[in-house]
Structures are given as C-alpha cells and as structure tokens.
C-alpha cells in the first residue's frame, strides 16, 4: 500500500501552539506529514527561513512521522514532487474558511488528485495567529502557553532590543 503523505504549508512566522495542535491532529490521519514553509516574496517575515525551520524542528522533535521542509512556487507542484495526496489547512474562523476554500478550489483545478483537509485547532488555540503572537511579543505581553518555549524565548530576544512599536532603540 502506498504511503499517505500530507503537506501542512504555511509561513510559520512563528510556529504557534495552534499550529502544533494541527500537526498532531494531521499526523494521526496520515502516514507522514511534511510541515512546509512556503516562501512568499510578497511577505516580509520577522524570522528568517533558517530560524523558522529551526523553530519548527525544535517543536516537532521526537515526532517520527513529521518532516520539516520549505518550497517556493505553487504548492500543488511541490505536493506532486513530494508524492503527497493531501494538503492540510488549519481553520480558526469563518473568515479563514472563505480564503482557504478559494485556495482549495484552485488547487483542485490545478491538481484534481490532491485533496484539501481542513482541521480546526482545539478551542484553546482558536484565537491564536502568528500575527497576533508577534503583536503581543512586540509590546512585551505574556506568551506563556501560546507558543512553544523555544519560540517564546526567540520572540523575547527579537523584541528585547526594540522600543514599543518595533523600532530599534
């Protein structure tokens, strides 16, 4: 029987406990899960590609069937190259669904054999996004329990030399 591989794409800038929850749910559904950072030239991430790869690897350490990678270009082309049968997307709110639904339909048009699986994080993570996490960190708010400890440490280091608002001080 062919191995069932799923891709969980995102910018993961940074990875949150909500992402981790989706990873844990996804790995129960598939033989292998590839957490893949999509390189989007339109976005300016807080953390470099290497930093994000490191944070994800630290977070999923010990999860044998989880791999960490990155890609550039169309997700469907990357998924075909990796032999994936599905893409996992996390949904937090109805507004996420509208956007993700459009992407899923386009992916299906481009690659009819690639399924999209929508997973909701647990209720305690439903309000978390990387953008909100960065905003809380920028102003020195408490991140305990919202991101892995190694991510919390990196966020504190990144913003410790900045004044409120993110400007160098």
Automatic annotation (TrEMBL):
Binding locations of ATP: 11-12, 19, 90-92, 100, 125-131
Alphabetized Pfam families for the sequence:
CTP_transf_like
Q: Which family does it belong to?
A: Belongs to the bacterial CoaD family.
GO cellular component assignments:
cytoplasm
- Whether Magnesium counts among this entry's keywords is yes
- Site feature Transition state stabilizer, where: 19
Listed name of the protein: Phosphopantetheine adenylyltransferase
- Tell me, how does this one assemble? Homohexamer.
Show the catalytic activity.
Answer: (R)-4'-phosphopantetheine + ATP + H(+) = 3'-dephospho-CoA + diphosphate
Keyword terms, alphabetized: ATP-binding, Coenzyme A biosynthesis, Cytoplasm, Magnesium, Nucleotide-binding, Nucleotidyltransferase, Transferase
The record's listing under InterPro entries reads: Cyt_trans-like, PPAT, Rossmann-like_a/b/a_fold
Task: State the compartments where it is located.
Answer: Cytoplasm
Q: Where does substrate bind?
A: 11, 43, 75, 89
Explain the purpose of this protein.
Answer: Reversibly transfers an adenylyl group from ATP to 4'-phosphopantetheine, yielding dephospho-CoA (dPCoA) and pyrophosphate.
